[in-house]
Design goal:
By secondary structure, the protein is α+β, with helices and mostly antiparallel strands. It is built from 14 helices and 9 strands. Helix 2 packs antiparallel against helix 9, helix 2 packs antiparallel against helix 13 and helix 9 crosses helix 11.
Length: 411
């Protein structure tokens, strides 16, 4: 019975004091809406950045030969490291923490030609493992280099999607023949479009890939420029890097701890940094959200004190007629919770509506796809409940402690 009377009284107050009630609920509405939007866009931006970061590869490291900076077993420092393809095969065989590895021969100014279209682009000679490591995914109807291409030194080429567009425009590329420095190559695949915000030799969509055996024969290359390696998800890249340094150190006679002998770009460090940044940002948003809701709660508390002043005579009459303190207390607390709940629900629905229509603006490439964070939603509901309870408790306690004579006299 009390909740029904409270709801009736709540709507009576809304009719009598429309502006005041609307402004009070707007504080809760805006606090809830801003929190949900902040968390939703934070989730979208985080997902977009992680996706772009993984465009380079997942759990990989890129290794370049360096220059020794320490003496080792009587050998002087300053020795230049050079890796052969056989060394990469040896490393693949010996290492226990490497799930995939590929050498990479590189050239930066090879001439590619299709009919009258010409362009100077980078061409790499790689192993088949290169594609899954680097998230170079063939588009539908395409394929990447395979073992048979390697064994037979086939003149086949895989094109980045933007390079394909430069050479072929809207024409079909797979199965066509292009000239690579005057040598005919058959196009076997085109890369599927991907997001990539970092690289070490240009974006993959502008690259061309051929079998390493073909590259080595065609350009008479003795040494690889670098190699790419991947470790399993359950193994830290630090462990893999130590193992690689030990194996190559024994092979090339350099101190495994020499920081200059190998240049290693560990992409997992960047991912860990991004996770830390977004975790800190998330807690920052939590702080902003709590402060916003507390501010709204203070407004609700002030309004309830005003309501108390207006209804002092009513409270005195109820107490004189036998109403118990707990009934008065419950009535004011429930009214406060209703104001908080209505503002919170409207804020949540408004934020949900904005997020639902956001994809129509085609801004996913910049901020990703915002999503309602259920953890944030549950947290917001919990905080709203606490704010509503605290905001209504003190005015309600004051109302329940009024004496009938005092209440009627004050009125």
């Amino acid at each position: 019975m009390i909740p029904l009377l409270t709801i009736k009284q709540f709507f009576n107050d809304l009719r009598r004091q429309k502006l005041r009630s609307v402004l009070t609920m707007f504080g809760i509405f805006w606090g809830t809406c801003s929190i949900m939007l902040l968390f939703a866009f934070s989730t979208g931006i985080r997902g977009q950045q992680m996706k772009s970061q993984k465009g380079l590869g997942d759990n990989i490291a890129i290794v370049w030969p360096g220059l020794t900076s320490q003496e080792y077993q009587g050998l002087p420092k300053g020795r230049r490291m050079h890796f052969r393809e056989d060394d990469i095969a040896y490393l693949k065989k010996r290492a226990t923490t490497i799930s995939a590895i590929s050498p990479q021969y590189q050239g930066s100014s090879q001439l590619l030609q299709y009919k009258r279209q010409k362009t100077l682009r980078s061409i790499s000679g790689v192993w088949p493992e290169f594609a899954p490591m680097r998230n170079v995914i063939p588009a539908e109807g395409s394929r990447f280099i395979n073992e048979l291409d390697m064994m037979e030194r086939r003149r086949v080429v895989f094109l980045g999607n933007r390079l394909k567009a430069d050479l072929f425009a809207e024409e079909e590329a797979v199965g066509e023949t292009i000239l690579v420095d005057g040598t005919p190559f058959t196009v076997i695949g085109v890369m599927k479009t991907k997001k990539q915000n970092s690289s070490y030799s240009g974006r993959d969509d502008r690259q061309a890939y051929i079998p390493s055996t073909t590259y080595k024969t065609m350009y008479s290359r003795r040494y690889v420029n670098l190699f790419v390696m991947q470790c399993p998800q359950d193994i830290s890249m630090e462990v893999t890097k130590r193992e690689v340094r030990n194996i190559l150190g024994g092979l090339y006679k350099f101190e495994p701890s020499d920081p200059e002998a190998l240049g290693i770009w560990d992409t997992t460090e960047g991912m860990a940094m991004l996770r830390s940044i977004f975790m800190a940002f998330k807690w920052f948003l939590v702080g902003i959200g709590i402060a916003t809701l507390i501010t709204g709660g203070i407004g609700v508390s002030n309004i309830m004190n005003v309501v108390l002043e207006e209804r002092t005579k009513e409270i005195g009459i109820k107490i004189a007629l036998g109403a118990k303190k707990r009934m008065i207390l419950a009535q004011f607390v429930l009214e406060t919770l209703l104001i908080t709940a209505v503002g919170g629900i409207l804020g949540f629905l408004f934020a949900y509506a904005l997020i639902s229509v956001f994809p129509l603006f085609q801004l996913q490439d910049y901020v990703g796809v915002p999503q309602i964070d259920m953890v944030a939603g549950i947290t917001t509901i919990t905080i709203l409940g606490i704010v509503g309870l605290v905001s209504g408790f003190f005015p309600a306690r004051r109302a329940s402690n009024l004496q009938p004579v005092q209440a009627l006299k004050l009125f």
